[in-house]
Amino acid sequence: MLPWQSWQIYVGLCLLSICEAFILSAFNSFMSKYVQNQFGLSTKGSSIIMGCLIVPAGFLGIISGGYFVKRYQLSTFQLLLLIQSCLSLSLLFSAGFILVNDPVKIAGINFPYRTDPAQRTTLLDRAKTRVQGLDFE
Hints:
The protein is an all-alpha fold. The protein has a domain at about 5-100. The chain is about 70% helix and about 0% strand. The chain has helices spanning about 5-40, 45-70, 75-100, 125-130. α1 runs antiparallel to α2 and α1 (about 5-40) packs parallel to α3.
């Protein structure tokens, strides 16, 4: 059986790992779509950009974290505080994306559906916008 102090550190590390997994899964799931909508990129382009950002950031984070722990010879409690502060800053900066940029209009969530029959789209609507001056009726 572990002493009480060890249990506190273990539970703290488990909770911090859950927070880290949440942040990474949110980046994996939503940031690609967010970049696609904000900058008008294709799905392929936004996925490539996010991959080019996340993979080196993870690599540099692991290397710099290991160097920082070895350089300053952090104890277990100091290491726990370091992890907690880094994840808190990461969560704070991630929330900054939502506060700074305008929301994307999504039908049914923050933008109403088109219910007027005169406003309904047809298969020819896209063709009408591309070929101007032609009458399809």
